[in-house]
LALA0S02e00474g1_1 (Lachancea lanzarotensis), 526 residues
Amino acid sequence: MQQYVKPFDLRFDTKPQSFRISEPSHRVPISCIFLCQFDVKKGNDLVWSKTSPSSPNIPLDNLEFKSIPSGIHEKHKDVVSFVIRKQDSFEDVFYGVSCFEQNGLALSGETDQLDRSEVRMYSLGIVLDVNFRYKGVSKSKYYDWKPNQFVSAAEYIDDIQDLLLHWSQKQANITSENLNYELFETYFESNCIKPETASLSSPILRQSWQSSATFTGSPRVLQDKHPHMLESLTQWFSFLGPLIFPLWKAAIVRRRILIIVGDGVSFEKCNALVYCLSILSLFPHNISDGDHEQPLQPLYTIGITDIEALRQHVARAMSSQNDNFEISGFVACTGDAILEDRPELYDVCLRINGDDSLPHIKSSEGNTIKATPHELELYQKLVPSYLGYELSHEEVEKINQLIEPTTWSQYVIDGFYWWATAGYMKPSYHKSDEDLMTEVDLERDNIEIVLSLVGYFHGRISRLYDTLKNALESGEEDIVTVSPIFLTANSLDCFSQGDYDFLSLVCRHWFNRVLQVRSIDCKLLC
C-alpha cells in the first residue's frame, strides 16, 4: 500500500464521516538538540547538547533514559518519541524525538566473542516548544489543533536519521573523547529558535528551514519520507484484534493507559499506537458543545525516572477540593516492566510481547480485560469492510482467546431464537452498526483506509453522545435509567457488565450525570 508522504491535519468536517487534510505552514523551530550514548562503563550518558538562548529553561535531566529506554538494545535502529514536562505538569510539555542506532547486533553476528569496547550505541534527538509562536509569530491553524502538536517533533525524524548515519560513519574510528559535533551544530543553527524568530511570519520560517541534505550532501526522494504515526493504525487494528475496542473505551473516558513494550518490540510502533489511541478517542468536531473535551494526552515513552512525576500527577488530583476528583488521563509506553507493578500509576495496562504472542490487558486492580462477544462479531465485520480480507479459521481461533465467555442469559436467548425460527433469525443485539461502515475499495491506499477507520470510531462517539444527551434530557430524575437495548443501539454488548460500567462512566465523564442500566429482560426476545 502507498504511504501518504506529507504531514496532514485530520479535522472532523461539517459533513459526517469526512475529514480535511492540510499541511502545516512551517515546522516548529528546534529548541534543543542532543546526543546520548550507551557506554559500557557509564551506562546511558548525555554526551552533548545545545539549547537555543530563546529556550533556556528546558530540563534535560534523565534525557539519556528517555532517548535510550530499557529494551531498545534489542533493536538495530529505532525511533523514540517522548515529552518533557513544563513546570511539573503533563498539561504543558515540550515534545521530543530521538533516533537510536547501534552496531552491537551486527558485531555479535560476526563473532562469538564480542569486544564490548567496539560497541557503539547512539541516540540523536531534538526537543521542541510548540508554543513558541504565541510570542509573536503569525498563528498557524495547523498547530492550533492539539493532535498536530503531538506529532510536531516527528516531522524531523528523516533529518535526524540522516544526520546520525553520516556522523556515525565519520566517527567510527574515533574515541569518545575526540568526537566532533560540528555537523549537528550547523544543522541546529539553521533550524533553532532565535531571538528574531518571534518577529518572523510563517512563510519566512518555512523558507529559512534547512534540511539535513544541505549538510550531509545526500538528498532524499519524496517517497522515502517517514510515515505519519497514524498510518500504523491498520497494523495495530490487525494485531490487537477485538482488544482495540476496550482500549478505545478506556481512552474515551480518559483513563491512564500504560503500554508495556516487550523484548524486541519497536518503540516507534508503540509510540504510534499511543498517538492512534489519542486520535481515535477525540471528540469529533461535529459535536457543537464538545469544545471542552481535551484530547487524551500522549506521553509517549516513559520509564523508571518518570515514576516520581507520575506520583505527583496523582497527588495533585487527590489534593483537589472536589470530592469527585478525576486523575487526568494519558497514554504512554515503557520498556521498564517494573511500572506494571505500580498500579497506582495507571488504570489500564496493555502488554505487548511481540508478533507471536497475544496482547494482554489488565486493570490496575489486576483483573484481565477482554473484548465482549459482540465486539468479536463487530471486528469480524470490520476487517473485510475496511482491511479488505476475511479472517481465517486460525485467526478466529486465536482472537477467541481475547473474548469474554458468553453469558448464560445470551446463551438462553440465542438458543430460543434458533429453536423458534429454525435458525433463520437472530436477536437484534447481533446486528452491527452497518450505517457507520464503508464499502471496501480494493484500490484504496493505506491512508484512505486509516481515515475511514478514524471516521468509524468518531462516528460511534458522535452517536453515543447524541443518544446519551437525548436520554438525559428526557429523564426528570437525578438518576436516569435505560434499558439494555440502549447499549445495543450504540454497538455495546447488552450482556456485558463491563459495558454497563462503561456507559455509566462515560455519562458521568461527559455530562456529570448518574446513569443506570436495567437488567436483561424479555423485551430482547421481541
Remarks:
- Confidence is low (pLDDT under 50) at residues 1-17, 201-207, 522-526.
